[in-house]
TrEMBL record:
It catalyses: a 2'-deoxyribonucleoside 5'-diphosphate + ATP = a 2'-deoxyribonucleoside 5'-triphosphate + ADP; a ribonucleoside 5'-diphosphate + ATP = a ribonucleoside 5'-triphosphate + ADP. Its EC number is 2.7.4.6. GO terms for molecular function: ATP binding; metal ion binding; nucleoside diphosphate kinase activity. It comes from the Eukaryota. Its cofactor is Mg(2+). This is Nucleoside diphosphate kinase B. Residues 10-147 form the Nucleoside diphosphate kinase-like domain. It comes from Oryzias sinensis. InterPro entries: NDK-like_dom (IPR034907), NDK-like_dom_sf (IPR036850), Nucleoside_diP_kinase (IPR001564). One of its GO terms (cellular component) is lamellipodium. Belongs to the NDK family. It holds the Pfam family NDK. The active site is at 124 (pros-phosphohistidine intermediate).
Amino acid sequence: MYVFIFSSELERTLIAVKPDGVQRRLVGQIIQRFEQRGFKLVGLKMVQASHGILSEHYGELRTKPFFQSLLTYMSSGPVVVMVWEGHNVVQASRKMVGQTNPAEAPAGTIRGDFSVHVSRNVVHASDSQEGAQKEIQLWFQGKDLLDWDCCDQIYTIEV
Ligand code: UDP
């Protein structure tokens, strides 16, 4: 017997293409990796992020020496912010993105394939389910997240 998970019960995560990823025209390739893995896009927008929202987003790093330069970098151009949904999407996304320092990220990960320095690592992915919920609420209003039926979801979310 098969049990199907309704999409509202599935995990969601926040993925952002950072300003270097947008400038280097990597948005399409990054989206493609999440699509081909079998995750579902439920929200997407391009924004010029303010220091206010970035300070909240990176609040836990407030005392780090790189905090101000991180805000300057992240507000230097548009970012593409997305919410992806699917089974185990938080942990799977972190693996797909690779370590914070691209020098340690294996080939085949986004950071390992597209970046070289920790301060320009092209993409953000939430690091926990709790973090994902907070970040999604910070960047999106509920009405901007779409609960839609994906025609192949019996092949990607069945348990
Ligand atoms: N960062 C940096 N220098 C460092 C460590 C981190 O510029 O030494 C930046 C980098 O862009 C990283 C972000 O700060 O992605 C957030 O750091 P975190 O430790 O949360 O890593 P992540 O969750 O992005 O892998």
